[in-house]
Amino acid sequence: MSDKSFNAFQMAQEQFDGVAKKLDLDQATRELLRNPLREFHFSIPVRMDDGSIKVFQGFRVQHNDARGPAKGGIRFHPQETIDTVKALATWMTWKCAVVDIPLGGGKGGVICDPHQLSEREQEGICRGWIRQLAYNIGPVQDVPAPDVMTNAQHMLWMMDEYETIHHGRYPGMITGKPVGMGGSLGRTEATGYGVIFTLREALRELGIDIQKTTASFQGYGNVAQYAVRLYQEYGGKAVCVSCWDQNDQKSYTFVRKSGINCDELLSITDRFGGIDKAKARQLGYEVMDGNAWIEQDVDILVPAALENQITKDTVTKISDKVKVIAEGANGPTTPEADVIIQEKGIFVIPDFLANAGGVTCSYFEQVQCNMNYFWSKEEALSKLDAKMTDAYLKVSAMARSRNVYMRDAAYMIAIQRVADACKIRGWV
Ligand code: GLU
Description:
Mean pLDDT: 96
CATH architecture of the largest domain: 3-Layer(aba) Sandwich
Number of domains: 2
Strand content: 15-25%
Structural class: alpha/beta
Radius of gyration: 20 Å
Oligomer: single chain
Helix content: 40-55%
Order of helices and strands: HHEEEHEHEHHEHEEHHEEEHEHHHH
Low-confidence stretches: none
Bound molecules: glutamic acid
Strand order of the largest sheet: 9-8-7-6-10-11-12
Distance between the termini: 34 Å
Number of helices: 14
């Protein structure tokens, strides 16, 4: 987001155009799917703790809802842009389609920095965001969820505002809510676990014993924390995570060759995923530059932070030892870097497949809210494993049968499903 020359939406369109050609989609379908159906821009005035009023810029993009209500998170980020939100909404459409859940794609954002805002001010932003969209979102229209720097509490404030406006209880209008207030057990773990479910299947197909592998993770937020945990439970050794340092306004990588310890690291991590450097050094971690995660001599790389991380400049730093990249973040790899990754023969589990666990569990949350009957954590996570494994196997079978790159295979399945839904509805 900070790189001015990078435009995530152009990248999403470029990826789409390539696959649309391979699928031989007609002109109208291409035009429809390469742009969002609807886009909302609005201002959110909030009374700050010092009594002043600050006006925040908010967005919601509904890329496509042919297969079901739009679905996707809301990001709070100081460098948020409408084009990033458009790209992420587009990727949500493909994500829901590739795991075959009856939802479309949406994404929202607010330009703000939660590090600088009190809880009360953040509540004001959440409620203001809903007031602007109260009649354009909802359980049968568009269902938001958490994303970068938003969490279960934010979702609950949003639900409360929506229910106040609509005079009723609508727990299916938003997901990622706290457990006990309409949330699903397993939702917090879901994205990170989903990445590792697909990684487990990829390694099995490649004939690599997970217990003999090492991995480097970028990030230590919700996705990386749980991905590292499950990967280590399966016997892999995670040697590296990274985080954004709010005070220094730069990121750092934390390396410990003997393996990192999740609980230990968590105890020195703030609520935004920032790790205390001095304490980490005391625990035996080497603290390096933020980009060092990509240079590690490991078998597996898991970018689980933001978009635009594996670029034509950073891709050359990837060690020859790396065999698999599992993309936990949305859009971490640029199309230029993709070409080099293919040349290097690295196996990629593309973002909208690898990180679809979050939205899949969000779908389970909706199902449970509609039934008003909630599952155990084991039930939610085993259903998640089944869904992710099935989606992975379909994509890898497509990659083999059509002899295409994994990202293209995932796109071919997802885009075809959405194109078929648009066609059968008579839209194109
Ligand atoms: N924000 C998550 C994503 O990018 C989850 C979206 C959802 O649960 O709707 O996939």
